[in-house]
């Protein structure tokens, strides 16, 4: 056999496996303990439940503000329509609207908002025939199309869980 061209130092002899290692790297953990895993899962679960609670609350707020926005738009449209037409009198009127604000016939499944409108004459001092009317617009979110009883003033008698908004304003022609 030929002698090697290079002289490499012989590898250092390591201590037997049963002998304890010494030095800064001797206490490297080989895994996580059961307590550490349980604690980590508890923290993650708590954070997850908190986030789910916030999402639920945010979704409710989003639905409520969405209804408020649609109701305000329908009330503004109703007011604009009333200012352009001759006032009909105090007979209550019920209209059905889609979430986009379109008027649809009663019974149309897209009409999830019911608008109960009533007008009453409002006396103007110094005038015998006032053309000022007090208008009440009650907007009800009724996606199930539940029949609602209406009182003499044209307002729907609602169950407490049914969302509604009422707007009142004056219209003159």
**Helix count, per DSSP?**
1
Class from helix and strand fractions: alpha+beta
Report the radius of gyration as a whole number of Å: 37 Å
- Give helix % range: 25-40%
Domain module count: 1
State the shape. Answer: rod-shaped
Strand line-up in the sheet with most strands: 2-1-3-4-5
Q: Into which percentage range does the β-strand content fall?
A: 15-25%
Please describe the biggest sheet, giving its number of strands, its sense, and whether it closes into a barrel: 5 strands, antiparallel
Low-confidence stretches: none
Q: What report would you give on this structure?
A:
By secondary structure, the chain is an alpha+beta fold. It has one domain (34-172). The protein is 29% helix and 20% strand. The chain has a five-stranded antiparallel β-sheet, covered by helices on one side. The chain starts with 33 loop residues before the first helix and ends with a strand.
In short:
With 173 residues, the protein is an alpha+beta fold.
Topology:
Elements: H1 34-84, E1 93-97, E2 103-104, E3 113-121, E4 132-141, E5 164-172
Antiparallel strand pairs: 1-2, 1-3, 3-4, 4-5
Give the tags.
single chain; about 170 residues; alpha+beta; five-stranded antiparallel sheet; 1 helix
């Amino acid at each position: 056999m030929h002698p090697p061209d290079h002289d490499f130092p012989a590898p250092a002899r390591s201590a037997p496996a049963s002998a304890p290692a010494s030095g800064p790297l001797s206490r490297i953990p080989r895994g996580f303990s059961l307590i550490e895993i349980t604690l980590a899962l508890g923290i993650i679960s708590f954070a997850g439940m908190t986030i789910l609670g916030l999402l639920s609350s945010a979704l409710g707020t989003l639905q409520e503000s969405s209804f408020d926005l649609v109701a305000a738009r329908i009330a503004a449209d109703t007011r604009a329509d009333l200012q352009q037409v001759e006032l009909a009198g105090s007979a209550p009127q019920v209209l059905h609207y889609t979430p986009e604000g379109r008027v649809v016939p009663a019974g149309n499944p897209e009409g999830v908002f019911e608008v109960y409108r009533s007008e009453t004459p409002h006396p103007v001092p110094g005038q015998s025939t006032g053309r000022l009317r007090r208008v009440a617009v009650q907007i009800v979110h009724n996606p199930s199309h539940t029949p609602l009883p209406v009182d003499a003033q044209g307002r729907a008698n609602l169950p407490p869980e049914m969302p509604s908004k009422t707007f009142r304003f004056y219209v003159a022609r």
